[in-house]
Amino acid sequence: MADTPGSIRVLLVDDHQVVRRGLRTFLEVQDDIEVVGEASDGEEGVARAEELRPDVILMDVKMPGTDGIEALRRLRELANPARVLIVTSFTEQRTVVPALRAGAAGYVYKDIDPDALAGAIRSVHAGHVLLQPEVAVALLSQDDQTPSSSRGGSLTDREREVLSHIADGRSNREIARVLVLSEKTVKTHVSNILMKLDLSDRTQAALWAVRHGITD
What we know:
Elements: E1 8-13, H1 17-27, E2 33-39, H2 42-52, E3 56-59, H3 68-77, E4 83-88, H4 93-101, E5 106-109, H5 114-125, H6 133-141, H7 157-167, H8 172-179, H9 183-197, H10 202-211
Parallel strand pairs: 1-2, 1-3, 3-4, 4-5
Helix pairs in contact: 2-3, 7-9, 7-10, 8-9
């Protein structure tokens, strides 16, 4: 099927065919979302992501062979730009927290309302970070052993301001509007923040900001 101009291109990665079929059936009726491919495990998911270059990947965590967490790590090593939304039936923090640390933009449960799932896809595509309160607490309660702990002082006032908006879940476009900046300028600030704090993505930046009290 040819790409629909302006649509959000989605890749489904889940080892249960019935789950993939259900997700595809629902998402295909969305005007702004297009399912461009499927994969049955993490290894195939990484390969398909490199081939198809989707905007958003819906990824299960527990899969035979290469699981979702390892797939996330490989995607990050490959600098694949897709935003990964974990879709899982597991609620344990020991399952979800490692996925977020590996670079997921957020997570939802498999019993999520279909309209809420579509909203979640649109949200992570727009640059938002989706964190359930209980998982955010678990992440924040863990000791921060990363070198970035001592690097907050290297941020400029503007970068700290941008970081506080990232912690509030705002996208680059929304930050640009609030701060009366161009979206390109905000993107540059975000890149500088990640570099200075030695972080790999917005999820980690949001957690760092909350942990260190850089919030509105």
